Amino acid sequence: MFPEYDVIVAGAGHAGSEAAAAAANMGSKVLLITMNMQTIGQMSCNPAMGGIAKGQIVREIDAMGGYSGIVSDKSMIQFRMLNRSKGPAMWSPRSQNDRMLFASTWREMLEQTPNVDFYQDMVKSLIVKDNRVCGVVTGLGHEIKSKSVVITSGTFLNGIIHIGEKRFGGGRVAETAATGITEQLVELGFESDRLKTGTPPRVDGRSLDYSKMEEQKGDEEITGFSYLDVPKITAAQQRSCFITYTNQQVHDILKTGFDRSPMFTGRIEGVGPRYCPSIEDKINRFAERDRHQIFVEPEGFNTVEIYVNGFSTSLPEDTQYEALRKIPGFENARMFRPGYAIEYDYFPPTQLTYSLETKLLGNLFFAGQINGTTGYEEAACQGLMAGINAHQKAWNLEPFVLKRNDAYIGVLIDDLISKGTDEPYRMFTSRAEYRTLLRQDNADLRLTELSFRLGLASQQRMQQVIDKRKNVEIIRQKLNSLFLEPAEVNPFLESIGSSAISEKQKAAKILLRPNLNLKDLSASVASLNSVLQQYSNDDLEQTEIQVKYERYIEKEQELVERMAQMENLVIPDSFNYDGIAALSNEALQKFKRIKPRTLGQASRISGVNPSDVQILMVYMGR
Amino acid sequence: MLGKLQDWNDTIAALATPQGVGAIGVIRVSGNDAWAIVNKLFPSKNLQQQPGHTLHVGLLKSGNETLDEVVLSLYKAPKSYTGENVIEISCHGSFYIQQQILQALATHGARLAKPGEFTQRAFLNGKLDLTQAEAVADLIASNTAASSKNALKNMRGGFSGILGNLRDQLITFSALIELELDFSQEDVEFADRKKLYNLLSEIGLQVAALLQSFRLGNVVKNGVQVAIIGKPNAGKSTLLNALLKEDRAIVSDIAGTTRDTIEETLNINGILFRLIDTAGIREHTSGIIETIGVERSLEKMRNADLVLYLFDVREETNQSLQSAVQTLQGQQKNYLLVGNKVDDNGTTFEQDFNGLGNIVFISARHNINIEVLQEKLFSLIVEDKSLLNDTLVTNTRHVSALEKVQQSLHEIIDALDNQLPGDLVALDIRRCLHFLGEITGEITNEDQLDYIFSKFCIGK
User: Fold this and answer.
1) How far is B1 from chain A (nearest CA, A)?
2) Which residue of B has its CA nearest to A551?
3) What total of structural domains would you count in chain B?
4) CA A390, CA A387: separation in Å to the nearest integer?
5) How much is the average pLDDT of A273-285?
6) What is the DSSP letter of A273?
């Protein structure tokens, strides 16, 4: 009934869908197996994509030819570029999305991708031969062969849902859990553990009083995530979000449910995300705060359902309900679905190599929550990388690895496999030591060519990058050769409160002034406008960032170069750590288990001291 | 570049005492087979059966030929300098004998050690950490009490302790700023900018003090070059003798790079003064001095830290000294005028020669005011004696990292002053942390290791 596939992907969430698309677009024959064809590309938690650090990841996925950016653009109901007032490294695109449209767009795009087959079933075990995986066995008993397998199990592996004292198996509410894989892998020597995550209640928008909340509108300019020209909503079509706050009364009611909370009574063993805590966690940990922010987010264009962001909880439904109704604007709220917590299996990611292949079993790749991460964007980018590398493996090609100074994706994977994680891992800009280089505006300049050479990013994307590079260069030259006269530029400078010039000055120099942007400058200075008007906003903005922040970009580049020798020093696979007397015992054990590829990676392993790295360095003859 | 991995299992040997003729020399042998290899040259005992930390006298032989009568000091791994099996062979101080022994060791499987290799092995076997290894290098190079004290201080942590603490505090601020950035959509607490300014200025003060200490540290480590100039009849030889008499016990002739230049060294309060005795001074080629005068001598002594201008108080006048002083000042040289041949009757010359800067009056022949001269020399170099008890920076690697720290501090403050966005401030802070880390050892790069291990001589 089934041919032999190049790549089988088990799971069709953000990670699985990206994996299937990437491998198929590179030319692999792919089978995407999901337990439910109706929930492909499901947003299990909040109806939003991007945000700080996460928005950069979506841009990177898009630059490489992944689908998340396009799907987000096509299904958005609101767009904002966060942190515009900060430096460009902090600018972060974020969208609110129509949950149903997002999922159907994903399915549609996958269906339109040649080489992707679908099958609705559960993968219950792997076919293993000589420490290599060569296919899967499904719940219905099919044995399906493939050269590589990618597992993206999300919260489904032995998932257990908690609401108050109620507890039942499930991968999401109203969906059954997946079983079998963990037990088989543990038998084969894998280490597995439990994590927990949670989601807030959904309410009926018709029952809310928005006049008691602050409105949060979308941007006037919608730039979106994709570098391709994807049709998007207009500014006027956007839906607003609303902000309200909890109060002491809300907290008091929530506390009455603590004795029935699965969190506090010890029924949940898994560790939850520290940076996305449940409301009961917040009250407990930040007892001094008398209120917490709540974002009221619409679930879509054609629904009245509302997502209560910031109110994730696993307290009993009646407690959730009573507390909700004390929030300003929620006095008459009707609940659609209660919040809940879910526990699931993950495999500590130090068991993976840089290509996301497991060290114990060849041809087996993991992506998403199975690796201990949280977040759609984190999952999607791992899926993309696992899909690429599953294809590479199937075709006997070199693994594709991004470095920490290439992309947030490189930071994420290096962190996971070097440090591991014992709580759900979320990306932050602070995790990227070269943040100023890894901006949302230059993901295409950083990554599209790499992906194009790999055979993933399209010719069209590559051509766009070539044009962008060329145009930026030309605009830079023009800004450096064009002198602006005081008469033509002073009125504009005065209007933005910047001091006037007394003699003519280079346009590039004027651009360095704070609170001044090229688009506005060009709009009011005719001589500048005449040379720049033919260029796109994207090209102008890219040039502006490169000119304005040149000094900072150079400073960070210098640090990259200072550390490059560490990153380029490869530790041979055969390296024998035993017998290096000076290594600390902890470092010795970790080095042997993680097998760092470079000295740079060795230095990032937790529990490894600088002295351990110095010893390795000297030992290696440096 | 030091040896690759495969080099680490063999046995190495080298002369551990300075080359040249001395009463004895020590050859150090280290490695798994050190005892076995030496035993092949030392037939009178089975060394393998001897405990560590024992001494053994006997003949060292290559075949039937006796090389020397030696004392062996046995150290068993890991209780040795390198952490390996070690034997130190105390032999006679003849260059020929030492070469014969090293050759015999090589014949039996030992390899000649590369510079720094013993210390490198000590480091790899956990006997020393990197800062200690660096301090060992400094200690070996030190030849006065003050410089060895400083090297020892660095070996125990030194200023990296102070900077490490400040770096930790800066990391806390960095974390707060990162928190603001990553949670800018939520209402989180902000890093207290005023406290940050305070911390930055504290780090700035420490770094500036350490950088300032480099001049003194350099003096402590390398000594002070003093050029003595003056007309032929001013009494330079007598002065030299008078100065050296004060400290005869530790004065020695050190062969310089050329045969023409002999250095006399003088230890004043633990600081080494190198009195440069060039041909221009020692030989009374009066023509040069008299016609070209001070200028020509200065040309020759461009590297001097201090110029001592000696004159005969009965021959010079205030006016005739003016031109010498002007030349010295023009060269921006630290100088000391020394009026020689003051009368025994105690007549002072201060009046005659005032307004000329640093000046001392002595009689070299009658040993008058020689101690005053020494104190003056010392105080010209060490402005504040108490600084000698502080930590001194002696290492150019540290200096360049400190300069980078200083620059990045300015950039952080600039960014704060101009109210630049937090992510740009954070980048400057990261750079500062990086450079501080290069000093405290948190961040290592290859240059640093090269620097450290290349400073050693063979056998150390």
Assistant:
1) 6
2) B424
3) 3
4) 5
5) 88
6) P
Model-wide pTM > 0.90: no
Q: In sequence order, which residues have a C-beta less than 8 Å from that of residue B15 and are 6 or more positions away?
A: B25, B26, B27, B28, B98, B102, B458, B459
B57 domain residue, yes or no: yes
Check residue B397 and give its pLDDT. Answer: 74
* Domain membership flag for residue B191: yes
Q: Please, which contacts does B237-241 make with residues 24 or more away whose CB atoms are closer than 8 Å?
A: B238/B340, B238/B364, B238/B365, B239/B310, B239/B338, B239/B340, B239/B362, B239/B364, B240/B264, B240/B275, B240/B277, B241/B364
- Interface A-B: count of C-beta contacts within 8 A: 122
Does residue A317 fall inside a structural domain?
A: yes
Distance from CA of B99 to the nearest CA of A (A): 28
Average pLDDT estimate for B319-344: 80
Q: How many residues does chain A have?
A: 622
Decide: A53 and A93 in contact? Cβ < 8 Å: no
| Whether residue B303 has pLDDT greater than 60 | yes
**Do B255 and B344 fall into the same domain?**
yes
- Say how many domains are in chain A: 4
Q: Do the chains contact at A86 and B422, CB–CB below 8 Å?
A: yes
User: Do B290 and B248 belong together in one domain?
Assistant: yes
Q: How confident is the model at residue B149 (pLDDT cuts 50, 70, 90)?
A: low
* Domain with A478 in it: 459-552
**Closest residue in A to B84 (Cα–Cα):** A581
pLDDT band for B183, please (50, 70, 90 cuts).
confident
**Helical (H) or strand (E) element with B339:** strand B334-340
Q: What is the mean pLDDT of residues B83-93?
A: 93
The answer to whether residue A212 scores a pLDDT higher than 60 is yes
Residues B120 and B13 in one domain: yes
Q: Which of B81, B124, B174 to mutate to test the interface with A (most CBs of A within 10 A)?
A: B124
Mutation target vs B (from A428, A618, A620, A622; most B CBs, 10 A cutoff): A618
Nearest to B125 among A514, A566, A581 (CB): A581
Residue A581 and residue B78: Cβ atoms within 8 Å?
A: yes
